[in-house]
């Protein structure tokens, strides 16, 4: 298990040994895996935002950064949103700027060459044409039926990858990676689920592998024998009719002759719970280890791996794995690798895997954000916000939830003398409620410990179990009220869900009704079921968990079913004993008479509403203005 002390004694020596991929030497065994940010420009050009995002992560210590999906076919094969382009020479200048920025920070960078194939929508193609696929009519999670790729089109598609690789080498990338994973075009040819062709590109495994192998050989012809070529693949599609693990492993052996490393994942967007795992950490790691037993080229493993660094260090030392890929973890904390190298594992802001980044923003065509990292996508502005303040002030922050902690940490970092007051005996605010149910207990407890560690490191004067009055403001130049929200509308005899979860005190009744269409209602129902209660969740709406993202809602719903929680929608508020209220919340109005927006300010969800994202954003940026 990971140490929770600020300065862990674990050195992770194997992970910080140099490693080789072909002729490329990397300073350590950490790879930033591709994750779509949508930070490119509207037409796929490299933007300043994109460069600053990668620059910050190169500075954070990973040996190799692999760009997000980079389009080789803008007309038919681009991802929905704002992907990078490499399909024309006019994009070379911006790509070269990106390479230089990463190199200047001491890291290597590979470009991922990508084509969506059927995992696209007709409305996203340049001329409103159907997406293309090995076989017509087999829709994906995106829901638009594709047309079949004609035999005479295949050489042109192969050349799109090859020319993308040529441009990558010419502008200075250190390697290319072919995206043959997660249900995109290369994997569509390989999968018997999506490839029903009867020509030489369909049928047997050798025929289904033909397209991918021809792409790899064409890329190799363009870049030469010494330029590193990586291949990312889903080695199994764990659903009926999908690619089997046996075929996936056999395909890895076919690739071995032509590539310098295999980046091993599983699943596609029809099996998103596998592709974007929430729990447990390392659920994809066994795939990489299985591949490693079959090939001699380096293998990269993925799957929430910042939680398993001690185990991974042993795996790398034993030769069971070569490189460790970090994806969402790098969104949450770009300095995770460097902090680990220094032995400061408790100072890593660890991804909690609620998939707001993917399901709330990326899937909705918006730039990717992170609920626990307010600096994501605003790296340059955040760097400026961290500069020392021109005048040191005495700052009081009231409330030690996420907003209050973020504000106190940044204000202290900027040189202010900060006092953080919390009326409860522990920091965390509503995070303490999120940590009750098993599903997020480790993640949220670790996040609370991160805040505790950072407050101490920043020199914040933390005062717990302390209430404040207006008279207490006299000694401060600036006061930030981060007191969050309170329950409203509950029947007189109902128990507030947030308070119940924070105190871990369940009602005495054996049969409990949780009322609400919120995420906290789902957490309350789960925790009560874990305590052995018979639980009914009633929602006033036609669905549950309306304030969370689709993936988190589906995940929690599955857990409710496994715990035999009865879910009823379209319900009136219940009455009587054993009712837990998890519905309406309103701003805490305490000390409102003191607010003048000059010296005393409201921040966090008390100001903005919302949940963790709104809290962390408000707290950080409010402190930047002091």
The tally of strands reads: 25
Approximate strand percentage: 15-25%
- How many independent structural domains? 3
The N- to C-terminal Cα distance equals: 39 Å
Largest sheet: 8 strands, parallel, barrel
Roughly how many Å is the radius of gyration?
26 Å
Average pLDDT taken over every residue: 95
Helix proportion range: 25-40%
Structural category is alpha/beta
Unreliable residue runs: 1-10
Oligomer: single chain
- State the name of the first-level CATH class of the largest domain: Alpha Beta
The number of helices is 22
Task: Please describe what this structure looks like.
With 626 residues, the chain is an alpha/beta fold. The chain folds into three domains: 22-380, TIM Barrel, CATH 3.20.20; 387-487 and 586-624, NAD(P)-binding Rossmann-like Domain (Rossmann fold); 495-583, FAD/NAD(P)-binding domain. Helices cover 33% and strands 16% of the residues. The protein has 22 helices and 25 strands. Helix 1 (48-59) links the parallel strand 3 (30-32) and strand 4. It comes from Kocuria rosea.
Task: Give a summary of the structure in a few sentences.
This is FAD-dependent oxidoreductase. The chain is α/β, with parallel strands linked by helices.
SSE layout and pairings?
Layout lengths: L18 E3 L2 E3 L3 E3 L15 H12 L4 E8 L12 E2 L6 H13 L3 E7 L17 E2 L13 E2 L5 H18 L3 E6 L4 H6 L14 H4 L1 H14 L5 E6 L10 H11 L5 E5 L6 H4 L9 H8 L6 E3 L7 H9 L5 E4 L1 H5 L3 H6 L14 H6 L17 H7 L8 E5 L3 H12 L3 E5 L9 H4 L3 H21 L2 E3 L14 E4 L3 E3 L7 E2 H7 L7 E5 L3 H12 L3 E5 L11 H13 L3 E3 L10 E3 L3 E3 L12 E3 L2 H4 L3 H13 L2
Parallel strand pairs: 3-4, 3-13, 4-5, 4-6, 6-9, 7-8, 9-10, 10-11, 11-12, 12-13, 14-15, 14-17, 15-16, 17-25, 19-23, 20-21, 20-23, 21-22
Antiparallel strand pairs: 1-2, 18-24
Helix pairs in contact: 1-2, 2-3, 3-6, 15-17, 15-22, 18-19, 19-20
